[in-house]
Amino acid sequence: MKRKIILEIFIIMLFTLSIYSQEYLYYPAQFVDSTHGIIDTLDKIQRYNIITGTVDNVPTTYQYRGRETYITSDPSQTFLLVSSIDYHKLIYFFYDTHDTSNYFVFPPDYGGIDELLYYPQGNKIFLFTNDYSSINVMDLSTRQIVDTLNFNNVVFSSELSYPYRNSFFSKDSSKIYFFSRDKVTQPYQVSTYSIADNEIIQKRNLSAMGYPNSDGYYLTFGRNGKGIICSFPNYNNPIKDFYFRVYDLDADTGSTFIHVNQPAEACFSGNGEYLIIMNMDISSSRVVYYTGSGGIYKTGTGKLIKSITVPPGGSIYNFDNYPSDIYYVLNLETHPEIYNLTKLNLNSLSVGISFPYSSGISITVKGKLFTSVSKVYFNNVQKETTYLSDSTLSFQLNPGDLSNFGDYPVWVDNYGSNSDTLILSVVNTLPQTITPLVDCVRNNGGNSYTAFFGYENNNSAPVFIPVGAENQFTKSPEDRGQPAIFLPGRNSNVFSIDFDGRNIVWYLNGIKVTASKNSPSCP
Fold it and tell me: Are 380 and 502 within one domain?
């Protein structure tokens, strides 16, 4: 797909493969330099900390001339490559993000550097250069190029998707997959580069992996052997049907196709469980921009999980493990607006208030965007967690976890992304009352009756009162099937008891109610 992408600001793609990665958004900011009586417009690299909301310069030892400063980061966000025009000469600066004073000037002898991948197993950097027509391997210990592979790849930057990232490692990091084609007249494909052999060992047509009979295909935003395949119509085709899927190139299997009927771009979170699709448009001045609308889809089913509505004109910033979130960012240089598109929603707990309890208990969490690797933390300790669906988890509390009074935080972790926090309170006295109720008694004939019980919980959260001293029937057996978890509000006909018409008394948190054959009859 040939489409000119004109951006008012550069695009920085921040991926991370490690839980110890940075939490920064890097960007060039302009300022006016008036030292030595010379007034000049320069660029400096700044970074915005998405955790603290603070900004600092990186580094302060060098300034970049002109308005053509660009930043590229490797997927682990361990290294930044800054390219700048300095006195009409192209210069690359290579930064270690963990120590920004550790940088060196990279000679531009290999043509334009399009993308870089950090390979920690060999302490190497793989550099895609000359419009993805060659790979150069740099040994970081010596800062020298040790291998070069040239090939006839004719993918141009105007054909690459936005976000700008089209090469990634296999899951075992032995191979690199990248978007390619051999000639302009030939179909798009994914090439497989062997790190050990320093050669391309396989080429696969994207049309076989994409939506049938589409006009074009591209591969983008990949990691751990998985990438997104977009199938799209010809630019002049009035029918704008775009199809997206997450494709596992290691296993050669793809997810369900997800369809949108307008231009769009996609990226995925976690291990590809969710696909985030943002709609795009083209302004009268040919600027491609996000409209601010989109959605999050379950890749296994294609089901829309969450609609997205944000202001138009922003940029997407992608992280992997820490945090495993996708950010939509506007006005980064002036008044940053940061929207976390994939933050885990934690809506409710099956127990929000509890009396002291010495035994173990299973509690359900309701929310959104859960995955099979989601883990619940109770009082900052990871608990045994069971994935039930993308909106439901259960976790197991051990004997003694609810023994002591206090407020205990509950939150969910998913690939390093943390949800909002809810509180489970263990109390001696409830904030509000819970009243047991007899809804009605049915006469079955022959001195047989059925009593229907309910309750009214005036607390705003579900309350756990275990069967025992504060939740019992006063004549044996004390446990007659009454609930231990009480939902907020009026709850009718929660359970029933067959009896002979003589008084049965339910005692609940200091309040008792009696059912007998003389209670109001059921309609």
Answer: no
Contact 460, 488 (CB under 8 A): yes
Q: What is the pLDDT of residues 208-257, one digit of tens each?
A: 999 999 988 989 888 899 999 999 887 677 778 999 999 999 999 999 99
Encode pLDDT of 423-462 as tens digits. Answer: 999 999 999 999 999 999 999 999 999 999 999 999 999 9
List of residues 6+ apart from 169 with CB closer than 8 A: 75, 117, 119, 175, 176, 177, 223, 224, 225
Instruction: State whether 481 and 333 are in the same domain.
Output: no
515 C-beta neighbours (distance < 10 Å), count: 28
In a domain, 217, yes or no: no
Sheet strands side by side (includes 189-194): 167-169, 175-180, 189-194, 199-205
Output the CA angle 294-230-269, nearest 5 degrees.
55
449-465 as b/e, with b when 16 or more CB fall inside 10 Å?
Answer: bebbbbbbbebebbbbb
Tokens standing for residue 278: 């943002």
Note whether 444 and 412 are same-domain residues: no
Higher-pLDDT residue of 138, 450: 450
Residues 59 and 158 in one domain: yes
Contact of 415 with 270, CB cutoff 8 Å: yes
| 3-class SS of residue 159 | helix
Measured in degrees and rounded to the nearest 5, phi and psi for residue 158 equal -70, -15
Mark which of 389, 407, 426 sits at the end of a domain.
Answer: 426
> Which DSSP helix (H) or strand (E) runs through 87?
none
Shared-domain flag, residues 31 and 123? yes
Residues 176 and 47 in one domain: yes
The verdict on residue 480 lying in a domain is: yes
Whether 275 contacts 318, CB under 8 Å: no
Ramachandran angles phi, psi of 208, nearest 5°: -75, -20
Preceding omega of 356 cis (within 30 degrees of 0): no
What distance lies between CA 430 and its chain's CA centroid? 37
- Residue 97 one-letter amino acid: T
pLDDT in tens, 64-82: 555 567 777 777 778 888 8
| H or E stretch covering 335 | none
How many domains does one find in the chain? 3
Burial bucket for residue 239 (CB in 10 Å: 0-12, 13-18, 19+) = exposed
Q: Which domain holds residue 421?
A: 345-426
- Pick from 319, 339, 343: which is nearest to 329 by CA? 339
What's the CATH code of the domain at 400? 2.60.40.10
Sign for the CA dihedral angle at 23, 140, 110, 92 comes to: positive
pTM over 0.70, yes/no: yes
DSSP 390-435: TTEEEEEEPTTTBSS-EEEEEEEEETTEE---EEEEE-SS-SS-EE
